[in-house]
Input
Amino acid sequence: MSGPINVRELAPGTPIVLVDGARAEIVDNPGDGVWLFARYLTSPRDPALVGQEGMVFAQDVAALGDPTAG
Amino acid sequence: MAMKASRGYRTGLVDLQAGEISREIFVNEDIYAEEQERIFARAWLHVGHESQIPNPGDYFVSSMGEESVILCRDRTGRIHVFLNSCRHRGMKVCRYDEGTASVFTCPYHGWSFGTDGRLVGVPYFREAYHSRLDKEKWGLIEVAQLANYKGSIWATWDPVAPSFTEYLGGFTRYLDLQLDGWDGREAQAEVLCGVQKWLVPCNWKFPAENFSGDTYHNISHRSVDLAGIGPSGAGRRDMGERDVSRKLHVCIPDRGHQTILYVLPADRLPPPAYMNAPIVAEYFRHCEEEKRRRRGDEARLVGAPGEIFPNTALLSRQPRTMAGWHPRGPHQTECWRWYFVDREAPTEVKQFLRDYYIRYSGPAGMTEQDDMENWNYAHAASRGTIARRHPYNYDQGSGTAVTDYAYQGLRVPGEVIDLTEVQSSEQPMRNFYRRWAEFMEAGDWSQLATWRASERKAAE
Output
């Protein structure tokens, strides 16, 4: 298992994997260590989110990942 | 406790007929608690200046009474003032003094608010709240009214308070001296550098009454006058206007605002100033000529220390600053001082003024230190059981104000005492505490807007 991710360091464009299995790409980082703005690339639980931008809670970020994978 | 059961200026604590004010209003914790509700939750309060937040996302954390507020500009450029407290458990959502942010995030549980105050991020919104939390209902608490007056930002928590300009009444012309350009153009001021903040162990009303126009305490500044920190190498400031003008106390009755004011003769520009810096001296000489051309007789008004009720001090001449006296308990005040220049002034002028301003004002300013020492020890010496039994004296110049003052064709509205010969009066302090007592007694703004009844009567 990888260590905790410092979300403050994640730049726009960084691909992330969320705890529910969704994949997203960061579009903005307010730098507060709590939230990221991201665009959903996949979302097995709620496909309606794909293509939408939303706020992602830091504790929902499971890993950094390749957005083209999966 | 020496406080009488009844309160108010008619019944004991503030007795303007006798020229006496009880020390209790400065040191009593119950009275202090009432002030927060009756004064700071109802009056218009100065929050900051738009030049502190020029771009979308910019914020400046300010204070209204005891409470922390965020002055910010949202993504569309609109200015807001919010209570700096998360709606979930009250944690401060912004713990910096100033900066730029896209959201204000509570570090406690992570609720996050946009710069327009809307609740935009709730951790586990779907999972724990089952998407049922009404985010529209739980945004940051915004002030009831906000006013941008020539770039200065003011706010009140009271939705039925009068508009800010009505609150100011005839005092607008003196706030204009602070915010308009030295050359008479409107709204030219910008805040120079940051805001200085420091604590003084005294009640907030000590600095408020001092800046209302206390000319009696000049002896306190004797040493700094002797040191000659002024921008022409003598005194603490250029005071040439004092030699040629009428020096006045001007009070706006019913509002609680008051100031010292100099009125130049009809045919005189202010005497030369800033003689230690030829570029600065020439800049001001040019500005004074332009102001006389643009404003005519109004340019004869030269500003000096004044106070907008309850806790904002003005000083439009030298050094050009505004101050806030934020209550931090009955025995402590957090002083904030903003420094102003004309935004289009040459860099050399701004730099010279910055050096002079901080030499004079603020926690390290040689003049302000004199004042702080007075407030500190006066407050400490008024807290004891015996001391509280004995009121302060505010009798100086009682009954000598006029309401039809004019000098060489220029009328000055309000209650005026010409100080040119008498040197000093305590009319400004009486005006301040009369208003203080009205706020402490009145149930709501229908009683506080005392001027409306007389205006209605005059209109009939």
User: Anything to note?
Assistant: The longest helix of chain B spans residues 278-295. The domain at 45-145 of chain B is CATH 2.102.10.10 (Rieske Iron-sulfur Protein).
